[in-house]
Amino acid sequence: MTANKSLRVCEKGHKYYKSSDCPTCPTCDKENKPQSGFLSQLSSPARKALVHEGIDTLQKLSSYTEKEILKLHGVGPASLPTMRTSLEKAGLSFKE
User: Rounded to two decimals, what is the model's pTM?
Assistant: First the structure.
């Protein structure tokens, strides 16, 4: 089954095709990706989900349980090892 993709143009004029309702431009997303820090190591959907929740530091991330993080749309189980490693390197962990 092939999804119908529609041509879209973002505010900056980038043209892209999407089959979902997601309004995010892939080109803008790449331009806005952090160059360092734990967010730079996550997939785009996981990064956006955390930022949308206001989780932009490891200290803020450590105030959540793994279950709470997994409930965020865009965060899957594959993102947890990366987050755990980043937290451990900073001497932190997920809330119990």
Answer: 0.73
Question: Which of these, 71, 54, 65, 57, lies nearest to 93 by C-alpha position?
Answer: 65
Q: Tell me, yes or no, whether 5 and 24 share the same domain.
A: yes
The residue type at 50: L
CA 56 to chain centre: 10
Do residue 10 and residue 48 come from a single domain? no
| Phi, psi (rounded to 5 degrees) for 16 | -155, 160
CATH number of the domain encompassing residue 62: 1.10.150.20
* Average pLDDT for 26-38: 82
Q: Are 13 and 5 in contact (CB under 8 A)?
A: no
pLDDT digits (tens, 9 = 90+) for 4-29: 888 999 899 999 898 877 777 888 87
Q: Give 46-62 as a DSSP string.
A: HHHHHHHTT--SHHHHT
